[in-house]
Amino acid sequence: MPKKGSLAWFPNQAFSQCVTKAQGLYLGAYTEVSTEMSKGKPYTPPRVTRYESEAEYPARTRLIVRSLRQELAAPQFEVEPHYVTVVDRDRKYVEVSDSFCQLVGYQREELVGKQYDDLTAPNTNDIPTVFRFFQKAGYMHGMWMLVSREGTRILVRYEAWLRPDSYIEGHMEVVGAGY
């Protein structure tokens, strides 16, 4: 005697055939493939335009990038512009805020043209490596150790980005001093 659960268990052969036919119809209804799929357009990969610097972006793209930066900026690193610096690709100061001059103890005329390497505390940062990363990314944020004219170490939190004119603008706030 066949086991319970097999189709042969049913006493009526006609009933067994009906069940088998119903299973076939059920499976067929859910495994049909649309013939319309082959008429679709062929896949075309998206076209990507690469720019060497943000200065080459079209104006609309610059606005979008600026907007995205503002939206995606990590809130814990959003830095109020207490101290502002602008440097060129040679890491030399082009512009500095009055508050930054006071912080480090230099006159504006002394800072403009000076490399920011000279105000970085010794043995704290690998400046060339960090600068290479920045040039690739176009944006960085983190902590940086400065040294004032008197030799006081000043820990700042910074946010810096590459501007459309190829200068680097940085905003800083003091986290601690006297190290």
Strand content: 15-25%
Placed side by side, the strands forming the largest sheet appear as 2-1-5-4-3
- The beta-strand count equals 5
Q: Judging by the overall fold, what is the CATH architecture of the largest domain?
A: 2-Layer Sandwich
CATH topology of the largest domain: Beta-Lactamase
Per CATH, the class of the largest domain reads Alpha Beta
Low-confidence stretches: 6-10, 25-34
> How many discrete structural domains?
2
Classify the helix fraction into a percent range: 25-40%
Report the sheet with the most strands, covering strand number, pairing sense and barrel closure. 5 strands, antiparallel
**How far do the termini sit from each other?**
91 Å
Number of helices: 5
Instruction: Kindly provide the radius of gyration, computed on alpha-carbon positions and rounded to a whole number of angstroms.
Output: 33 Å
The SSE string, one letter per element, is HHEEHHHEEE
What is the residue-mean pLDDT, rounded to a whole number? 75
Described by the principal axes of the CA atoms, the overall outline is elongated
CATH homologous superfamily classification of the largest domain = PAS domain
Structural class: alpha+beta
Describe this structure in words.
It is a single chain. The chain is of the alpha+beta class and 179 residues long. It has two domains: 10-39; 75-177, Beta-Lactamase (2-Layer Sandwich). It has helices at residues 13-30, 59-72, 98-104, 108-111, 127-137, and strands spanning 83-87, 93-96, 139-147, 153-162, 168-177. The longest helix has 18 residues, at 13-30.
